[in-house]
Every structure is written in C-alpha cells, then in structure tokens.
Amino acid sequence: MKFTIYDKVLEMIPGILVWTTILGGIILAAAKPIWAIYFIIAFDIYWLLKIIYLLFYMISSWRKYVRDISINWMDVLRTKKLPWEEYYHLIFLPVYKEPYEIIENTFEHIVASNFPKDKFIIVLSGEERGGKEEFLEKAEKIKNVYGKYFKLLHINVHPKDLPDELAGKGSNLNHAGNQIKKIIDGWKLDYDKIIVSSFDIDTCAHKEYFAYLTYKYITSPNPTKTSYQPIAAYNNNLWQSNPIIRVVASSTTFWLLTDLARAEKLFTFSSHSMSFTALAEAGFWDKTIVSEDSRIFLQCFVHNDGDYAVEPLYVPLYMNTVDIGKIFPSLLNQYKQMRRWAWGVEHFPWLIKHFYGEKGNKKISKVKKFKIVFNHLEGMYSWATAPIITYIVGHVPLWVANINDTKMTLFQNAPHVLSLLMQLSMVGLIVIAIMYFFMLPPLPKLFNRWNYAIIILQWLVVPFTLILFGSIPAIDSQTRLMLGGKFRLGFWVTEKKKL
Fold first, then answer.
1. Beta-carbon-side half-sphere exposure of residue 479 (alpha carbons within 13 Å)
2. Which pairs with CB-CB distance under 8 Å and at least 24 residues apart come from 354-358?
3. Which end of the chain is more exposed for a tag (fewer CB within 10 A), N or C?
4. How far does Cα 215 stand from its chain's mean position?
5. What is the rounded CA–CA span in Å between residue 77 and residue 81?
6. How do residues 463-488 score in pLDDT, each as one tens digit?
C-alpha cells in the first residue's frame, strides 16, 4: 500500500492534539498558574456534568440488561411465530496457542445455548504460525466431542506469511471467512438468513444470547444493514483475578453499557454479530490492521453509503480478564490489552480518506460523516487526556505558583474546589460499584465471604487505574501512530489462561 505525506499528516493529528493539551496545560500552569486554575476548575466541572449525563444512559442500559436476561427468548420466538427455523448462526472462533480448556469452555456454553444446535455452523480457525500440529490436535479433540451437535464444525488453518497481511485476528478471520463462503455457496444458503458472530476464543455466550440475537435480527427493520453489539462482561475468571485487573475490566463493561444506550455513537467492539450478507459485501474483516472488530462496522457503513447502524444487545457475552495468576505479568498484559484497544485511533486517517478524500464516499450525508469522525476523535482524545489532566496536570499550578499567587483567594480555595468536584464525581463510581455487585458470578466454593469486602475496597484504586491503564496506554498508542515506522503497533494476542 502506497504511503503518502497526506497519510502521515492524518496519523499525526490525534497525537498532536493530545500532546498539545498535556504540554500546554503544564506550560500554562508554570507561566500563568491562576489562568491554569481557572481552566482546570472549568475542565473538572465539564467532566462532572458529563459523568452525570452519561450516568443516565448507563442506568437506562442497566434496566434493559436486567429485563432482557430474565426472558426465555426461544419461547418469544415461538409465541410470536417468527420464522426462526429459516436462520443459521455462523460463529467464527479464531485461535492462537490458547489452551484446550479455554476452547472447551467456549464450546460448552455454545452447546448449553437455548437455541437448536443443528442451526449452528462453527468455524474454529487456528494459526499456522502458532503451531499447526498442536492446533489440529486440539481441534480434532473438540470436533470428536462437540462436532455431533452442529450442522458443521469446520476446522480452518490460516497460513503464515500470506502477502498483504498483518499477522493477527483480522487476517485470521478474513481467511476463515473466505474459506467458509465456499462451503456456504456450495450449499446455496441464503446469505440474508445467516447471522454471523465473531467471538474471541474465550467468549462464553449467555444461554439466551443466540435466541435473543435471532429475535433482534428477524424483527429488525433492516437486518442486513445492521451490526449487533452485546455487553462484554469479564466474568469467566473474575473471582480468581486480582482487584486491579477486575476494576480495569469492569470499566470496559460499563463503558459499553453507556454507549449501548447511545446507539448513534456505537462501533462494534470485540465479540459482535452481523449478517453474512453485509460481511461478504464488505470483503470480510480487514486483514491489514489491528482493530478489525470496529473497522468492520466502518467498512459496512461506507459500503452502504451511510445506511448502516449498530443495534445494542443487552444479553451479555462472558470473557476472561487478562489475569494469568501472576501479579506483574498480569498487569503488563492489562496494559498491552488497553494499548491495543486504544490503537483503534488508527481508524481516524481511514475515516478522513474514505469520507473526504479524493475517493471518499460522496453519498454519505455530511452530518453523518461529521458525527462519526467527531465522536471517534473526541473519544480517543478524552481517553488519553481526561484522567491525566484531572489527577496530575490539574495540581501542577498548586505546586509551582509564586508567593503572590498563593495569597489570592482563588488559589487558596482551589484545592477545596477541586476536591469537592472529585468527590461529586464519585457518585458515578458508587452507582457503577452497585451495578457491578449485581453482575458478579456466583462465589466459587473455595472462596469465602471476605472476597466480597475486597470487591468493595477495590474501587479505591480507580484513580490509579484511570491513569496507568487509561491515559498512559492511550497516549502510548496515539504517540506511536504519530511517530509511525518502527513505533507502529502490531497485533498483540491477549494471553488466555484458565485459573
């Protein structure tokens, strides 16, 4: 792919915005502490109002989650006499060196689903570069145990070093998609009647997920021009994970809960679902990037001239945290996972070129284009800057002010004002903690009730996690994109381990 100066400038914009804000705040604090205090107070008030605003959306999603997980969706399909028998579920499960126990757990949950298993087509896709023989041994074992349940359990091996590919999940899925398409075409199945789910290999579906997804798909006014985004709950190994990892993982769940209530801001993330029609027309997942999970939505959006959306699903998928049983390696894994997710900033140059470039789609409305670009850039910018400004840069003027400044009433009251604003913002954290408590899986037999106390106390580390696993990995990613070359991120595979 030809890389131009124009591409480079676009890649630099997010990083320049972030570093201008952080360095500008520090310089302003040193040169004009009083001005900086005014700015920080205004910034904190803005974030307090935003937290309150987002809290309403989070509570709205929470109520729908509580409602929808209590319904037998297979009964709904039958009661409403919807033609669910005509539909198939095609599930992609990419694998890279994960232990057999992780794969087995995913299949156990698929088999336990409240939906006829003969309507499932499973693609278990391993990597040649991850050890072909080892993968095929695990795959054959899975097929012997679970293959009898499904219409098809297809084993795919993604060859290494194919041209024009970035090694990672996207290239694996792209290859697997093209291979299963040949089988589907041979069967002459209707693409519109195939509902695709792309799952991380540790994804364990709630027993109602596939019936619920089928209901949403059939009743959607435009099912083939819609992606479906569920809640991601990191519950599989929650009790075995350390408190810091739990707090970071839960922040992702509640971020999704908030965005699910604002569907116009939704991109697909991690495990998601869509029609095979849309997937095939978009050319399957991008095989050249890290963030294929959200890019596939943007591919479909551009391909359909803006007539494409994401519908929220309130029945969850359960996944593993990154905890592998050792504190420091687990924390490093957590940092790398957040940095990889923050690498989604790579969509910004792509959006500008496909919206406004020479070959940009002119059929998409200017309003839709602006909203997509603004929401994406603002989200990435806030991710990188908000915690570090609130908890670090905001205190710089209090440290460097001269004697004359310290005598001013504003300066003397500033610490109390900033403290009050932070305390008020904790209301949102308290609500999240309560919701989180009710989403917990059952306490394992080997654990005691003191673990609930740890669950409560773990929220004290939130300021620490917002900076170390929020701002810093986001700044890291945007800086790497800005610098380019050897600093660009490749795909890092999250280590999965059954604790």
1. 12
2. 354/298, 354/302, 355/302
3. N
4. 24
5. 6
6. 899 999 999 999 999 999 999 988 99
The DSSP output letter for 429 is H
**Strand order through the sheet with 309-312:** 152-158, 120-127, 88-94, 194-198, 272-275, 226-229, 309-312
Q: What is d(CA 240, CA 238) in angstroms, rounded to the nearest whole number? A: 5
Chain-centroid distance of CA 110 in Å reads: 21
Distances in Å between the Cα of 91 and the Cα atoms of 142, 181, 220, 275, 311 are 15, 13, 20, 11, 18
- Neighbour count for residue 182 (Cβ, 10 Å): 9
Amino acid at 430: I
Are 109 and 441 spatial neighbours (Cβ–Cβ below 8 Å)?
Answer: no
Q: What is the structure's pLDDT at 28?
A: 84
| 313-328 confidence digits (pLDDT tens) | 999 999 999 999 899 9
User: Angle CA(105)–CA(109)–CA(114) in degrees, nearest 5?
Assistant: 175
d(CA 425, CA 457): 18
Closest C-alpha to 68, from 265, 178, 212, 240:
212
- Averaged pLDDT, 444-468: 88
Q: What average pLDDT does the structure give for the chain?
A: 91
